[in-house]
Amino acid sequence: MRLPSLLRRTPFRLTLLFLALFAAAASAILGYVYVASAAEARARAESAVRAELDTLTGIYRERGSDALNRALVDRLITDSPFLYLLMDREGSVITGSLTASPIVDYAEGEQWITYPYTDTDAEGRVTRPQARGVQVRLASGELLFVARSMGDTEAYLARLTQALWAAMGIVLLLGLAGGLFVSRNLERSMGRLNRVVTAVQEGDLKARAPVRNSGDELDELGQGLNVMLDRLEASMASIRHAGDAIAHDLRSPLTRMRAKLEVALIDAEAGKIDGVDALQLALDETDSLLKTFNTVLAIARLQAAAGSGRTPDPTVFDAAELAADMAELYEPASEDKGLEFSAEIERGLMIEANRPFLAQALANIIDNAIKYTPTGGAVMLRARRRSSGEIEFSVTDTGPGVPEGDRERVIERFVRLDNSRTEPGSGLGLALVGAVMEAHGGRIQLDEGPGAYGGFGPGLRVALVLPPATGA
Amino acid sequence: MRILVVEDDADAATAMVRGLTEAGHEVTHAVDGAFGLLEAQKGGYDVYVVDRMMPRLDGVGMVETLRKDGDQTPVLFLSALGEVEDRVTGLKAGADDYLVKPYAFAELIARVEALSRRRETGSVATMLKVGDLEMNLIARTVHRAGQEIDLQPREFQLLEFLMRHAGQSVTRTMLLEKVWEYHFDPQTNVIDVHISRLRAKIDKGFDKAMLQTVRGAGYRLEA
User: Fold this and answer.
1) B194–A contact, CB cutoff 8 A
2) Is B37 exposed, middle or buried (0-12, 13-18, 19+ CB in 10 A)?
3) Mean pLDDT: which of A9-18, A22-31, A251-260, B172-181 is highest?
4) Which of A123, A127, A167, B50 shows the greatest Cβ crowding within 10 Å of its Cβ?
5) DSSP 3-state of B109
6) Selection from A63-77, A97-111, A160-174, A304-318 with the highest mean pLDDT
7) A427 CA: distance to closest CA in chain B (Å)
């Protein structure tokens, strides 16, 4: 990885940012330690100088300037950490380790000074450490200067500074290395995710991110990506399936229509039917094809909605009213066929659904019941709330029913049982009901009816079970 | 009746103009929403039949503009989009009715005629009268030739709709939409059974049958 590209990487940039912050913080600490240590050293030197000055002025006060002079000489012989200078009234040196006072203004009272003095270290090299000193004029007019080197503190500070710089250097190096490492690691993980995204872009919907179950954010992202791709793949598959299904579903009615029109043309040419009748037949066939087409399209749309888990255009309404409307709409047709029609509808069944689709579903099962129940039979519509809270519509008839083995099958598209072939119908009615239920997170249940009834039976009970409206 | 057809599909437009002219109406055709708007602004139309999707200015845009200009002429929207949300958007834009393509001529003509009538009966009537049939909308009673006819609530609504559109063909789909307020395909013709029950009540015992079946279209109440 070249540096310019490295600089664009987020983890590496973050590392650099943190290193810069660390360096700034370290410099601030260093500065503080330095200033604080320097002040401390100065205060220590000053109090030592003060104590020494007090001792010396004590000797002077008690025993006079000669005694002071002797005391100074004694101290000069021994290796005292102090610097001394005793001068006469005019500033000429009497005794001392200095050739001249750094304070040339021989004022009255105490005068303090910090200054660099010249010294030689153990190896004989000339150094100029800082010293803190004070000068006083004694009662007899002599000038006494006492000072103490702050060289120890300076050396200490120098070592401290060095150590801090070194530490900072190490941290910077380690940080940089760590940053590179993290960056590369992240780069690899991101690279894996990026490769999946690129693969998907290029049309491979089967690509999935490796998941290590480490529980970190990247793993989570990978898992999220995989779930998203699963859903995408499923919905693509369902769209493809719907497309295939529509093509397949329309081929048979189109073939049928073509055949019928061809026969009509032959008949018209032979003079068996007239042109108007042939055209009327063509129109009727087109209408029935359009109806099939609309139903197939609606089923595909509902299945796509079910795949995405969203009901199309839902509204909240009272399913009891819908059931009552349907009962009212179908009752006359049912009675005209000589069927006994009844309805049992509980009140207040709030539901969130697509009203036209649900009406269509109910209409289809009521219509089926009326169509397949022989005269003299009965059809009953019920709407109730189950103890589970779900809303259930059921239509029970006393027709021939559906054998248990066929109950799953009749919900599929274009499946018509042998004994129903004589009735008009497209074979899409229950398939649409099934799709409506799927899109609403509900289900369709087919069961045996009440048993033998007026020589027929065992009847059929079709139940539509739907979740209630949330908050209802 | 003067009708403005705004439709960009030439074949569909030709057929529509032909069908409506045949039904005795005066039809003008505009090829898109912008021309439609110009033509509509000339005034004098009873109904606009507007295609939903057109180049330049689409049906929704055209109708919104007309409504903003204060033009209250009834609009029938034609659309290949049959979803509920499309219907709602169409009606919200200011359309009065919505017909999904493809449609039967009978359905189109019935709906266009129903729209034009709607404007005439804008005032609040308390009595409807068709021939010797009288409906009191306040007392909710129906009399034919002075003889009271007992109707179920839905039969009353059905008859009211037919009386408001007396002399016009109304289709089964229109009845399901306007009387029952449902948009779905009832498979068998449940509407026919309701009509025959109503017919039994209002025509039985009278010389003239008022509620007539129109072949290939639906029903018509004749005075």
Assistant:
1) yes
2) buried
3) B172-181
4) B50
5) helix
6) A63-77
7) 12
Structure tokens at B64: 């919104």
Contact B185 A287 (CB under 8 A): no
Contacts of A124 (CB under 8 A, 6+ apart): none
Q: To probe the interface with B, which of A288, A313, A354 has the most B CB atoms within 10 Å?
A: A313
pLDDT at A189: 81
The pLDDT of residue A228 is above 80: yes
- The DSSP element (H or E) to which B73 belongs, if any, is none
Residue of A93, A92, A96 whose CA lies nearest to A56: A96
pLDDT per residue as tens digits for the range B5-42: 999 888 889 999 998 998 889 999 998 888 999 899 99
Q: Which two tokens stand for residue B98?
A: 């919505």
Given B154, B187, B188, which is nearest A328 (Cβ)? B154
A414: left (phi over 0), alpha (psi -120 to 50) or beta: left
Contact A325 B182 (CB under 8 A): yes
Model confidence over A371-415: pLDDT tens digits?
A: 889 998 899 999 999 998 899 999 999 888 888 878 877 777 666
* 3-state SS string for chain A: CCHHHHHCCHHHHHHHHHHHHHHHHHHHHHHHHHHHHHHHHHHHHHHHHHHHHHHHHHHHHHHHHHHHHHHHHHHHHCCCCEEEEEECCCCCEEEECCCCCCCCCCCCCCEEEEEECCEECCCCCEECCEEEEEEEECCCCCEEEEEEECHHHHHHHHHHHHHHHHHHHHHHHHHHHHHHHHHHHHHHHHHHHHHHHHHHHCCCCCCCCCCCCCCCHHHHHHHHHHHHHHHHHHHHHHHHHHHHHHHHHHHHHHHHHHHHHHHHHHHHHCCCCCHHHHHHHHHHHHHHHHHHHHHHHHHHHHHHHHHHCCCCCCEEEEHHHHHHHHHHHHHHHHHHCCCEEEEEECCCCEEEECHHHHHHHHHHHHHHHHHHCCCCCEEEEEEEECCCCCEEEEEEECCCCCCHHHCCHHHCCCCCCHHHCCCCCCCCHHHHHHHHHHHCCCEEEEEECCCCECCECCCEEEEEEECCCCCC
Q: Which of A347, A391, A402 is nearest to A369 (CA)?
A: A402
- Residue B132 and residue A379: Cα distance in Å, rounded? 39
| Chain A residues inside the 8 Å CB shell of B201 | none
| Sole residue written with tokens 């993290």 | A182
> Would you state the structure tokens that stand for residue A7, as one six-digit string?
């600089």
Q: Between A294, A313, A325, which is nearest B85 by CB?
A: A313
Cβ distance B84 to A363 less than 8 Å, yes or no, reads no
ipTM of the complex: 0.84
Measured CA to CA, the distance from residue A301 to residue A311 in angstroms comes to 10
Tell me the shortest Cα–Cα distance from B53 to chain A, in angstroms.
20
Nearest CA in chain B to A290: B102
Whole-Å CA distances, B73 to A28, A70, B180: 81, 128, 26
B188 touching chain A per CB within 8 A: yes
Instruction: Give the distance, in angstroms, between the CA of residue B61 and the centroid of all CA atoms in the same chain.
Output: 23
The CA-CA-CA angle for residues B14, B17, B22, to 5°, reads 125
Q: Residue A129, Cα to own-chain centre: how many angstroms?
A: 62
